[in-house]
Amino acid sequence: MLSVRNLQVAYGSVQALWDISFDVPDGEVVAVIGANGAGKSTTLKTLAGLLKPMAGTISLDGKTLERAGSMEIVRHRIVLVPEGRRLFPDMSVLDNLLMGAYSTPKAGREERLQKVFATFPSAKERQRQLAGTLSGGEQQMVAIGRGLMADPRILMLDEPSLGLAPRIVEEVFRIVREINSSGVTVLLVEQNTQHALKIAHRGYVVEAGRTVLSGSGQELLGNDEVRRAYLGL
To answer: What is the pTM of this model?
Structure first.
């Protein structure tokens, strides 16, 4: 299990996270929801080793990770699919996917690639196409596929539905469920609260850099405060 306790993070002199705590049990989809600027993406960047916390702990099965660098985090099979997809636009779809496997042993890469192609048939069809020429939805699928090529134990998804058409949003969340069903734990940061909580085993609400509420996905969907603040109900 991934466990985060009392995390504090700053960008220079500006503190972004004040008290973030949550658990990500093996095999679950865990959603972190909150308004824009609440600290959700900062939390994922810290878990990925891209930012170092001022205070607090991050542990995986009891092993502390808060001082680990990004390469070490990936070796622990904790993989981030960043907001905005961050593909290499002048490289082919195939090369973008293979970049995800850069830090993994060569054995098993081809098998993972074929699994990615089975999950994302359009990526197989367009594997020689430059990633920058794909639609936004297609790029998101490649970004998720690149994450899967790293053989994640925990796949962290930062706003995977951002800017996508409703039909593609539905497909993204269907794929997230499928990935989880295959045995991959998913930590999902998402402003599309309703979709995120519908597929989440548990969820956490973040406000102004603090964890303020937690519960099962269904409990949070039915919570009056969540419904008013994030669902417009």
So the answer is: 0.94
